[in-house]
Amino acid sequence: MIACQKVHTTYERERVLDNVNFQLAGPTITGIIGPNGAGKSTLLKSILQIVPAGGTITIDCKPAREKLKKIAYVEQKSSIDYTFPITVRECVALGLYPQLGLFHRLQKKNWQRVDKALAQVEMTDFSQRQISELSGGQFQRVLIARCLVQEADYIFLDEPFVGIDLVSEQTIMNILRQLKALGKTILIVHHDLSKLTTYFDHILLLNKTVIAFGATAAVATEEHLAKAYGANLIFKGGAAK
How far does CA 66 lie from the centroid of its chain? Predict the structure, then answer.
């Protein structure tokens, strides 16, 4: 379980998150949604201890800093250097180092885990390619494979579907549903409101503080979304656009 109590974060004297409170018990696929500047990515980074945050953040009833190895994290692709000279297989293997140590030599069983993860995301044929040769969708699958080898209980994805093709998006969603069936808790920062009901079990609607949190059908209402995004949000046929 992930729990946040009175969590707040400030950048350059501006409050980015304010009095964020929620408890999330898995397995689940939960979407974190809200307008630009709502603090969605900051919330993930606060839980991960990447940015300093006030309040209390716990994972499985322990301080978050003691449980970080239980989390696999894929940041926004815009923050990643595509030109780094590394193959797809080597990139996925990086997910093993938090467990093994940076200078540990990978053994056959470790590479078998890497190859299994690549097969799960349908990227086996690209294993020896440089990551710079991949499309956006292919690279996102590789990052998901890197999560898979970590065998973490929690998976954090920050805008994983931005700039990727529909086939890769559906492949990733199918994998995430399988992981949920295995007991994983998955948090996804997301922006496409039209897919909320098909992608997520729960929604955390955020605009610096929690506007609403709960089952998708209960949160993705015109009233809640308008409160987060403003009165100009247009609804058509019962779905937010």
Answer: 20
